Amino acid sequence: MGARDLPMGSALHIVPCNSIHSFFMRFPIDVVFLDKHGKILHMLHAFPPWRVGTLVVGARSALELRAGALQFSKTQVGDFISFEAG
After folding, report:
1. Strand, helix or coil at 71?
2. For residues 64 and 29, what is the distance between their CA atoms, to the nearest angstrom?
3. How far apart are CA 86 and CA 73, in angstroms?
4. Across-strand partners of 33?
5. Measured between alpha carbons, how far is 4 from 22 in angstroms, rounded to an integer?
6. Can you tell me the distance from the alpha carbon of 55 to that of 67, in angstroms, rounded to the nearest whole number?
7. 45 Cβ neighbours under 8 A, 6+ residues apart
8. Are 85 and 47 in contact (CB under 8 A)?
9. Residue pair 45/75 in contact by the 8 Å Cβ criterion
10. For 70, phi and psi rounded to 5 degrees?
11. What DSSP state is assigned to residue 80?
12. Contact present, 34 and 81 (Cβ < 8 Å)
């Protein structure tokens, strides 16, 4: 929140999380909601600033990305995302 942009290739993983808001944000974001296994349950494309998202039943975390990243990567509901220590 308060940032002017989200650089391509960066993301914010919020745990635990099953709903988001974009209050105080200055730009739209893509969001994926993941279950405990990393399966994508729901996606938001170019979620605009100053909005409240819906509650995603079964979601354990949310991954916020630069708007357009989901379309660019052809990510779909049902895909799995894994995280590696780096």
Report:
1. helix
2. 6
3. 21
4. 42, 62
5. 13
6. 20
7. 30, 67, 70, 71
8. no
9. no
10. -70, -40
11. B
12. yes
Residue 71 CB neighbour total at 10 angstroms: 12
Q: What is the pTM of this model?
A: 0.91
Burial class (CB in 10 A: 0-12, 13-18, 19+), 49: middle
Using alpha carbons, select from 11, 79, 81, 14 the residue that is nearest to residue 53: 14
Distance CA 68, CA 53 (A): 18
Query: How is residue 79 written in tokens?
Result: 């895909």
Cα angle 65, 21, 39; round to 5: 50
- Enter the tokens of residue 54: 């819906």
Q: How far is CA 38 from CA 28, 53, 78, in A?
A: 23, 20, 9
pLDDT digit of tens for each residue in the chain (86 aa)? Answer: 566 777 878 899 999 999 999 999 999 999 999 999 999 999 999 999 999 999 999 999 999 999 999 999 999 999 999 988 76
